[in-house]
TrEMBL record:
The protein's name in its UniProt record: Adenylate kinase
Binding, ATP: G11, A12, G13, K14, G15, T16, R128, G174
Gene Ontology terms for molecular function: AMP kinase activity; ATP binding
Annotated localization: Cytoplasm
Protein family (similarity comment): Belongs to the adenylate kinase family.
Main location: cytoplasm
Classification via InterPro entries: Adenylat/UMP-CMP_kin, Adenylat_kinase_CS, P-loop_NTPase
UniProt key word Nucleotide-binding: yes
Organism: Aequorivita xiaoshiensis
Amino acid sequence: MTNIILFGPPGAGKGTQANFLKEKYNLVHISTGDVFRYNIKNKTELGDLAKSFMSKGKLVPDEITIDMLSNEVDKNCGSNGFIFDGFPRTEAQAEALGHLMDDKDSQINAMVALEVDDEVLVQRLLERGKTSGRVDDADESIIRNRIKVYYNETAILKDYYEKRGMYYGVNGEGSIEEITERLSKVIDTL
């Protein structure tokens, strides 16, 4: 199994690249946001629990998120591996994901990060905002704050995975095809 964490700031192209990589390598793309939306929409026990925290403006506890991810892994246990997108975001979550994969007799092979200049991110998100309908993609100050939050709170995972020899930074600028090719070169070495 090949299990990667696709990492990068908002607008780096994680969703776009995950779609190409899942096809090329026959991997299952697990987007934490999609998993949350699915569980909430389908009123699963975990979805209702998550919604109870979200409706109060609180973060969903890691245990609930890990349980949702565990269910997704179980649903796709015969796959060639997984692309985790949007998780982990903290060291505690990284450790929990590692334990989850251990429990499934597997492991995370790498964190592959799309590295993109901040001004390029801002322009990409503003462009996406014209068609996405997402309010957080239409306001430059909100976009800049999202990028700042990423660097202050999430980018610390680079060090976590770097210390374990599992971090691979990839230039996330250029055409979609060029970026896919760069990502593929990394994945092919795992």
